[in-house]
Amino acid sequence: MVAFGDMILFVLAAGFFGLAPTWYLLKLSIEKAPRALLAALFLIACLDVELAVSAQPGERGPPG
After folding, report:
1. 63 or 16, which is more confident
2. 46: alpha, beta or left, given left = phi > 0 and alpha = psi -120 to 50?
3. Are 62 and 51 a contacting pair, CB within 8 Å?
4. 3-state secondary structure of 63
């Protein structure tokens, strides 16, 4: 039971300390390549619409 608590603590600490470099890299990518980021977001949005349209009536869409 102690090992489970240690594992949860590790996951939470790693997630918390991983936020700073992730935020920095996202900020850097937005400053350096705003067009590429916009194109990636547009592609993701189009794929999501395609997945939603391809679902059969009465079925639930993809998870997420």
Report:
1. 16
2. alpha
3. yes
4. coil
In this prediction the pTM is 0.45
| Alpha carbons 10 and 44: distance in angstroms, whole number | 32
Q: Report CA torsion sign: 33, 39, 42, 46.
A: negative
Residues sharing a CB contact under 8 Å with residue 61, sequence separation 6 or more, in sequence order:
51, 52, 55
Q: In angstroms, how far is the first alpha carbon of the chain from the final one?
A: 32
Whether the CB-CB separation of 61 and 52 falls below 8 Å is answered with yes
Whether the per-residue pLDDT at 11 is higher than 90: the answer is yes
* Closest of 45, 42, 44 to residue 34, by C-alpha: 42
